[in-house]
Recover the amino acids of this structure.
């Protein structure tokens, strides 16, 4: 963080920590407003913090420029994989996922919305995962501002500083409409279906997005995949016509429960529904994609600029399997690397979420790590080199105000590969996701002091 911005942030933090008005009544109101605004995960309010995460415009622009280039590189990986059976096999798709990925979604851009999960470091930032499935959290910035920006200390701060507040929810709707019209959609006011399993932990966000879409004039329903019907012309839920299928259900979970006779699969195969994100994004969503990007053997896929960004911002990542690979300019046996470099490695399932199945080498005993290696070799896993994550001090509340050192997981949203805002997750533990107990806050971009 530049010195001028660091000074501004530290001054704001002192103001918060020394504010006698911040007490139990304010904390109760903050929790209550989060419940009312849908800032919940499994019923738990997600923001225990008393200010947003603050970046300079220069920092935000640098992360955004790199993220946009990396998203473009992923599009090249997907295009090559669909023509290259060996590369596609390396990515680890199931037969059903591959079948659906080969269907043309009807528009050119791979991801309508996506998110690059990013760790801030003392020297910059590193991208760790690509959420190409249709990421959660797009509406949270809007709601977090309603909670935080009415606090007196933030009102004073914002009134004195030129700033930018991103609007990812607006860019989401614009992008859904863009691809619908590119797809050939005829409706001036297309109907939107937000589709996921009933009762998922992120369901509160769906109501926020429905309210926003409808305020803009687009009739919207929140639906479970079991409620869908297809008559050979239109995908429906009862009498509700579905023009834009905003997919929040996870592809592999959907394909584990349904076969290609499901109404969505039939309508999508017939080209009778605009689905965003499409089934094709599963190719990029696999964590093995980072093994393709970071492996010098595949550099011919990319431009010189893309290669430079990959080298600078993608950590060493490999698919876990027996054989040799390059590791810090040496050719070595991968299993030997796993066994001798535990303190600097993370094992990750190729396709899971919420921190499930992740094994952090420096927090794992030798015997448990050996079992993890055996599991990774037997299943579909990647190994990634440790990133030295930056900690920041941020004021938060429990029954009192306190400052706590937190890991920052800064995750820029991309809409048709263009940045707009971020999901900012903070945690005292190495796993920063909200599913594992972390929290979140808003993003505030300050024009360079």
């Amino acid at each position: 963080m530049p010195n001028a911005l660091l000074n501004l942030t530290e001054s704001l933090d002192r103001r918060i920590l020394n504010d006698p008005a911040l007490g139990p009544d304010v904390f109760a109101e903050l929790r209550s407003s989060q419940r009312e605004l849908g800032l919940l995960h499994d019923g738990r309010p997600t923001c225990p913090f008393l200010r947003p995460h603050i970046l300079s415009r220069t920092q935000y622009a640098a992360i955004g420029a790199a993220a946009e280039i990396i998203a473009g590189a992923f599009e090249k990986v997907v295009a090559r994989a669909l023509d290259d059976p060996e590369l596609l096999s390396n990515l680890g798709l199931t037969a059903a996922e591959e079948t659906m990925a080969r269907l043309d979604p009807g528009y050119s851009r791979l991801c309508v919305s996506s998110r690059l999960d990013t760790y801030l470091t003392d020297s910059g930032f590193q991208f760790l995962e690509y959420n190409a499935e249709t990421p959660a959290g797009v509406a949270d910035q809007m709601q977090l501002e309603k909670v935080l920006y009415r606090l007196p200390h933030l009102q004073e701060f914002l009134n004195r500083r030129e700033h930018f507040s991103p609007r990812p929810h607006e860019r989401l709707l614009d992008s859904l409409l863009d691809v619908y019209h590119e797809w050939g959609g005829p409706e001036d006011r297309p109907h939107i279906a937000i589709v996921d399993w009933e009762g998922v932990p992120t369901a509160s966000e769906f109501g926020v997005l429905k309210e926003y879409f409808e305020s803009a004039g687009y009739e919207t329903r929140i639906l479970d995949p079991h409620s869908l019907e297809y008559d050979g012309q239109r995908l429906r839920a009862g009498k509700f016509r579905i023009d834009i299928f905003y997919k929040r259900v996870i592809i592999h979970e959907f394909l584990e429960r349904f076969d290609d006779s499901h109404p969505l699969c039939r309508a999508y195969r017939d080209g009778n529904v605009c689905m965003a994100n499409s089934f094709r994004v599963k190719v990029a969503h696999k964590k093995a994609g980072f093994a393709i990007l970071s492996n010098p053997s595949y550099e011919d896929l990319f431009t010189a600029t893309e290669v430079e960004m990959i080298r600078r911002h993608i950590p060493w990542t490999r698919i876990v399997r027996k054989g040799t690979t390059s590791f810090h300019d040496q050719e070595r046996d991968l299993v030997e690397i796993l066994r001798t470099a535990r303190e600097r490695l993370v094992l990750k399932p190729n396709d899971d979420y919420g921190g499930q199945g992740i094994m952090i080498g420096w927090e794992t005993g030798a015997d448990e790590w050996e079992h993890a290696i055996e599991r990774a070799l037997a299943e579909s896993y990647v190994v990634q080199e440790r990133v030295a994550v930056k900690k920041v001090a941020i004021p938060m509340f429990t029954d009192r105000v306190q400052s706590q050192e937190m890991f920052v997981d800064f995750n820029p949203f991309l809409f048709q590969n263009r940045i707009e805002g971020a999901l900012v997750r903070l945690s005292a533990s190495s796993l920063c996701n909200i599913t594992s107990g972390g929290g979140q806050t808003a993003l505030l971009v300050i024009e360079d002091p």
